[in-house]
Structure formats: structure tokens, C-alpha cells
């Protein structure tokens, strides 16, 4: 399969849903922290990867994924484009995002993760 990525990391915040008007389409968004290791240095770095899960898969992610949980995420790598104001000027920015095709929960549920995921509309 072309354009498939898999990452293992910890969820940075509880997933949140964004609905799109009357269409019923919903995307669930969350980010995953992935440790970067280098044999040249003892310094550990954390890379944050944004994940989008659509419709049914998004509903499942919203119900089961919680902040701090270790997950294996598999999906399609895409580039998200957005505008940001920098020094008073609008600048077009891009960032990588994984369009979720599957996920697996790993390890134990983090202690104190009883917060209910939120649902928001756009």
C-alpha cells in the first residue's frame, strides 16, 4: 500500500470532535508525542504529530482514546494547509497530519484519565 505511516507514542490531549454543518460529517482530532532518538547525542526530542479520524473511526477514537494513553496509529500522511498571522501579515503554513485508518491502544490506561472527551461544532 502506498503512503502508509505507523507511529507509536502517547496522546497529548483528549480527542475533540469538529462537526461540519448539516452534512453530519465529523472529524476527531488529537495529537501524538513521538520520541526522537539519535545515536549521535544523548538528547531526547519529542515530535508532535497531528491525527485526524473521520466519521465512524473518529467516533471510536473519541470513545476510547484518552490523554496520556500509548497508541499505535496507522494512516495516510497528508499535508494540512492553514493561514497564520505573523507580525501582522497573513502567512500560509503547512504541517504534516496523519489521516487515521486504524489504531491500537497499548499498555495500561493512564491514572487520572477520567475526563470525558469534548465535542465541538464548527
Give a description of the structure:
The chain has 122 residues and is mostly beta strands. It has a single domain (5-121), classed as Beta Barrel (OB fold (Dihydrolipoamide Acetyltransferase, E2P)), CATH 2.40.50. The protein has 1 helix and 7 strands; from the N terminus they run ββββαβββ. It has one helix at 55-64, and strands spanning 5-11, 16-19, 26-36, 45-54, 70-86, 89-106, 118-121. It has a 5-stranded mixed barrel. A hairpin with a 2-residue loop joins β5 and β6. The radius of gyration is 16 Å and the shape is globular. The model is unreliable at 115-122 (pLDDT under 50).
> How would you classify the quaternary structure?
single chain
Question: Order of helices and strands, N to C?
Answer: EEEEHEEE
Strand content: over 45%
Judged by helices, strands and strand pairing, the structural class is mainly beta
- Count every helix, treating DSSP H or I runs of 4 or more residues as helices: 1
What general form does the structure show?
globular
CATH H-level homologous superfamily name: Nucleic acid-binding proteins
Radius of gyration over C-alpha positions, nearest whole angstrom: 16 Å
> What is the CATH topology?
OB fold (Dihydrolipoamide Acetyltransferase, E2P)
CATH class: Mainly Beta
Q: State the end-to-end distance.
A: 33 Å
Number of strands: 7
> How many separate structural domains?
1
What strand order characterises the main sheet?
A: 1-3-4-6-5
Mean pLDDT over the full residue set: 87
Q: pLDDT below 50 for ≥5 consecutive residues: which ranges?
A: 115-122
Amino acid at each position: 500500500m502506498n503512503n502508509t505511516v505507523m507511529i507509536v507514542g502517547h496522546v497529548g490531549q483528549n480527542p475533540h470532535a469538529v462537526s461540519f454543518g448539516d452534512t453530519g460529517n465529523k472529524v476527531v482530532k488529537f495529537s501524538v508525542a513521538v520520541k526522537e532518538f539519535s545515536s549521535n547525542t544523548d538528547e531526547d526530542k519529542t515530535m508532535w504529530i497531528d491525527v485526524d479520524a473521520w466519521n465512524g473511526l473518529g467516533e471510536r477514537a473519541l470513545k476510547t482514546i484518552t490523554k496520556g494513553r500509548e497508541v499505535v496509529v496507522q494512516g495516510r500522511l497528508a499535508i494540512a494547509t492553514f493561514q497564520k498571522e505573523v507580525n501582522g501579515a497573513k502567512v500560509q503554513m503547512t504541517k504534516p497530519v496523519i489521516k487515521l485508518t486504524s489504531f491500537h491502544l497499548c499498555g495500561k490506561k493512564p491514572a487520572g484519565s477520567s475526563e470525558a472527551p469534548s465535542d465541538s461544532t464548527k
